[in-house]
Amino acid sequence: MNLAWRDVQHGLGRFILTCVGLSLLLGVVMGMVGIYRGLVAEALGLVRSAGADAWVVEAGKRGPFAESSRLPRDTRDAIAVHAGVAAAGAVVYQTVEFPYRGTNLRVFIVGAQIGRPGSEVAIEEGRPILKSRTEVVADRKTGLALGERIRIGRDDFTVVGLTANATSSGGDPVLMMTLRDAQIVQWQFDPSAVRRETARDAPAGGSSDLVSAIIVRMRPDASSDGVIGSIARWKHLTAMTAAQQEEILTRSVIERARRQLGLFAVILLVVSTVVIGLIVYTMTMDKKKAIATLKLIGAPDRVIVSLILQQALAMGLVGFAIGATLIRLAKDYFPRRVVLETSDTAILLGIIVMVCLIASIFGVRSALKIDPASALGG
Amino acid sequence: MMASPRPIVAPRPVVEIARLSKTFGTGATKVPALIDIDLTIGTGEVVGLIGPSGSGKSTLLNCIGCITEPDAGTIRLDGRAIFDGKWLIGDLRRLRLETIGFIFQFHNLLPFLSAWENVAIVRTLMGESPERAKARAMELLGYLQVDHRADALPSKLSGGEAQRVAIARALANEPRIILADEPTAALDSERAAIVIDLMKQVATERDAAVIVVTHDEKIFSRLDRMVHLRDGRIVEVVS
């Protein structure tokens, strides 16, 4: 007969309620980890989907994601013929908001040259951009529908394709268009602004044939370091590998958010430990008379310790299972992406087991201190 | 399960106490709880420890039950000297498990176990298989005529039924000594008499010694001996 199980059965409703309460706490911990993973996935998704071997940006900059970068578009032509380069494509990145269904829709515009690196995208529904103007591919998170027409700036665009999980490091859904369209959106001034600039005898916006970065694919036999070094030396540009770009993103763009979320997760785990500890302690104190009786009739300490540990572990594991289920059911309703990785779940499970064992210490200590003589008398 | 007539034999000592003393506190708060207690209790005997509050009854019961270590004197349980410096807490607990049965004022059944499980747990703790432990528990519940309530939780048992189950648990380890702390305090006269007679029957049939701490005058006449304590000393022994 398992004393822990029998005691749980005896107070099943209370045990389940405790587990549900705990599961909400553990669900938030899992959510925090999932949000962090989502942050990384969102931040790196765009970089990885570009399939770049190297990124070329404005000299002295760490763009195009960590900071702004501007290059003349024809830089691409010079890079494309550089030794060791197989293909190159110019891209423009910018965040815009435009009126949509009575509110403002915030998107991350990716302008790329059709058929060149940076323009490939995994279409879930519809087709890729074929026309050189006024077609866009939107991420599902924009809420845009296939065939829907939207107005950005002075132009109308038609949604011809839909993607999934294409977002910027800030979590804004991606709206993909041709490079030229993106440049127009970026540089096309409002008529009143044009009039003002004309009045002060300044060309409105200066040169508009600028891009954010050049995405480079190398020949299989080319040396990555050689090509990057050569571009930096001879073209007076900054070039970096895809790995370096990812590192910049993770270290600069999402580092603070990562630490913030990590700290929250640690605080919540400490809170969980305290909560489990208090619950275990209370459960132990509720059984004070039963424990004293067990000791009096000769039950060894291991029976009593095992009773407390098994209940603490059962509570932690059931709470964890409910929490994991809840967060899996709720993850798609979060405004930012939540990525629940099996490895994180396994690590968290291990941590919860440790937390339960640590939290049981006070309960076990108090149980071992219970005087068997207290079972005698009233 | 009534015993067949047995030959009359002299009681064999099960509890032998010599010059036992126990003091609580130190300095100004020093309180002598037991002073030079000498007592021998044999098999088949039901002995009552009687006295006012603070007379040392519970301390004496705790010393015999291997719970409280005396300051001086000796205690021999079933021929074995305890508290002689060779016993660890775990050993004493094992000795309790194998030698002593406890009966409490409020039965102290584990609330999350059924009646038969409350009895069987003792056998399980002794290392017996669950099946054998259950069989033994059912046998004891039958002996105490409460086997029809075997599956009931303690909260569903009447006071008398719960006390019978508690007695069954006290007998589960086939103890040489049964220590009962106010076992009839929560029972009416009729049920109190039944419980004491039951303990007497158990003591006789199973060669056990029963020590009862009680204030309950209605059971005095049913005890074999009454040991009166006052201020930690035995002041009178009435047979």
UniProtKB/TrEMBL annotation, chain A:
Q: Where are the transmembrane segments?
A: 12-36, 261-283, 303-327, 347-368
| Location of the ABC3 transporter permease C-terminal domain | 263-372
Signal sequence, start to end = none
Query: Topology in the membrane?
Result: Multi-pass membrane protein
Where does this one sit in the cell?
Cell membrane
Q: What GO CC terms are in its UniProt record?
A: plasma membrane
Q: Where is the MacB-like periplasmic core domain?
A: 16-230
* InterPro entries (alphabetical): ABC-4/HrtB_transporter, ABC3_permease_C, MacB_PCD
Which keywords does UniProt give here? Cell membrane, Membrane, Transmembrane, Transmembrane helix, Transport
Q: Which Pfam families match?
A: FtsX, MacB_PCD
Chief localization class? membrane
Q: What is this protein called?
A: ABC transporter permease
**Origin species:** Bosea vaviloviae
Q: What is the lineage of its organism?
A: Bacteria, Pseudomonadati, Pseudomonadota, Alphaproteobacteria, Hyphomicrobiales
